[in-house]
Request: fold
Amino acid sequence: MRILMVTHYFPPEVGAPQARLSALAAAWAADGDEVTVLTGMPNHPTGVLPPQYRRAIRRTEQRDGYRVVRTWLYATANERVVRKTLCHLSFMASAVLLGWRRCRRADVVVVSSPTFFSIGAAWLLARLARARLVVEVRDLWPAIFTELGVVTSRRLIGLLERLELAAYAAADQVVVVTEGFRANLISRGVPPGKVHVIRNGVTPGRFDPDAAPDPGLRARLGARPGDCLVLYAGTHGISQGLRAVVDAAALLAGLPVRFAFVGEGSEKEGLRGYAARRAPGQVTMLPAVPHAEVPALIAAADICLVPLRDVPLFSAFIPSKMFEYLAGGRAVVGSVRGESARILAEAGAVVVPPEDSAALARAIAALAADPAERLRIGRRGRSYAERCCDRLALAREYRKILDLAADRR
Reply:
């Protein structure tokens, strides 16, 4: 099958969608499909283009058995709404105008959302190629912005929701990443037979749960000899509730526990100042690391955190980072509700209510004092990741959905 994947985000950028989509493309290509990824020049989240992509209008690359076509976009940091909107609009236009001739041979077009703009480009490319369209939904957008108060205009919310439902109607099949997302779409009129769940996952072989932690890396993460190192690695945004984690760190002052936040995001600078005031010397903040360095990062930690804000809609969300934590064989503490809490409980992790700093501090203190229990939790999590979260098996399930879409010809 000739598969065209359209996505705003792709490696060498670092993040959950980049890891998911590149793994899917590689798995489909390895199984014999002709895969092309249409994406923009890498710039997320800093807005800075690597030197080799500057002043480029279009680039074609080969990666892991598939082709990557990159087109120009307006690069900007992931901070201001107007500029980010211009960035997404520019990719929508360039994907069609610059990408069409390189990508017109396709049987199925797969587009990953957010945002709507990528869906618009993919819909037009699918029409031009007379191909089927599969829309992947990684976030309930714009609902999440409404819940968090980012968008308050009822008129704008109504317009965005109509665009969202139009995108689902235009798709031949819809793929979501949680059962909660599927229930949400069905409750709003999307036919049940059209909506499929393919969770995020992990490649367990990339992680060695018995790997010895690198002392130098632990030191860079702020841990002294004998400290219990608590790691959060991921986006520093409005959804993660990281201030509550800083508050938990403050409650543990005086104990040999140190926290490391690794990643980027719109809230990072504000969080840095908050940590300096609230928990001085207890929290180390470092930039995001390349995906290849994540296994060593997790191996350096004693406890890994999965936090989210205490927002009702987040009961349907599953932070993708938790699958890598489980595969890494480290003790995991989730400060979450709903579907992600159920998965973590099944995997043997510790779960506390979201944004409950006192409960989070108690859970961390108990694990910090009990290395044997941390080891047991880590082993249970690794076993769960191997059984239920293998990315290759999930890619093959996803591939069956593309056949369903193609059969509608």
In short: The chain has two domains: 2-201+390-407, 204-388. The mean pLDDT is 94. The domain at 2-201+390-407 is CATH 3.40.50.2000 (Rossmann fold).
